[in-house]
Amino acid sequence: MHNIFRFTQKNALNSLDFIKMRLFNEDFSFLHTIYSNKDENETVIGVFSCKLNKIDENWINDISNSLDLIILIDELSNLNLKAKKSLKTVFQEIFNSPCFPNKEEFIKFIKAGKIAVASFGKSNSLFKIDEAIRNALREASKNINIALAKAALVHIQFNHSLSKLDFYRAIEILHEALNDQAHVCCSFKLQKSSSNFLNAFLILTGFNNIKELKNENCLSQLFNLEPESKINEEKLNLNLDLDLPIID
Question: Residue 202 domain-assigned?
């Protein structure tokens, strides 16, 4: 077991005075003036939807002077397509989830790097944890070199409580995918929904420049296979399709 997940109490992030999150629109010209005098102990997180394959390095350098963590979301991400709510609301729910990593775990995540990329996966199969996280990893690997991530935060939403083994499994999957070198933490929110889909919001961080984001090795091939759950379900259902003789 690589690390034991530890949750803080409900709405724990509100008690962490060092966090202040903002979602900015396409006009970034005012960032410097707003946060040039930010408090010394204040951490500011910005969330941006953009074309990940066309990021301008000068733009990243400009906004990085005003932000402690930049979370990027590809315009074609399932996270964007899913969000009926604003992205600001989505991330506020993530960072204020009832079960959130404790302060020490979250500080490690924040300090891992300047740039992060968010992705989304879901599943309603028998192996929901595995498939949802693999789908989020698959989406991220289309745009970035996930092997260079130094930390990961996975936020899970489901309409039933999960066991410790479920969270251990989520952490294990991410350690395996990130070459066992990334700090991994997770959060959870019980979803008030009749949907049987388990949602996984993944944030990979530890990137410090544009070059580190480039996926030149086609890492998406790592996940170029049928989701594990579907394969297992097919195995489980083999006996259901047998033509058995009719006995009078």
Answer: yes
Question: Could you read off the pLDDT of 10-65 as tens digits, one per residue?
Answer: 444 444 554 555 555 444 444 444 444 555 556 778 888 888 888 888 888 877 87
Could you list the residue range(s) of the whole structural domain that residue 71 is in? 12-241
The domain that holds 34 is classified in CATH as: 3.30.1330.20
In a domain? residue 62: yes
Tokens 């049928």 belong to 226
Name the token pair of 243: 């033509």
Distance CA 78, CA 156 (A): 15
Alpha-carbon dihedral angle through residues 104, 134, 223, 118, given to the nearest 10 degrees? -60
Residue 7 maps to a domain: no
Beta strands in the chain (DSSP E): 19-23, 43-50, 69-74, 115-123, 151-158, 183-190, 198-207
Give the C-alpha separation, 5 to 18, whole Å: 21
Q: How many domains does the chain have?
A: 1
Is the residue at 246 inside a domain? no
| Angle of CA points 46, 152, 228, to nearest 5° | 125
- Tens-place pLDDT, residues 71-105: 898 888 887 766 556 777 788 788 777 787 877 88
CA angle 170, 173, 177 (to 5 degrees): 140
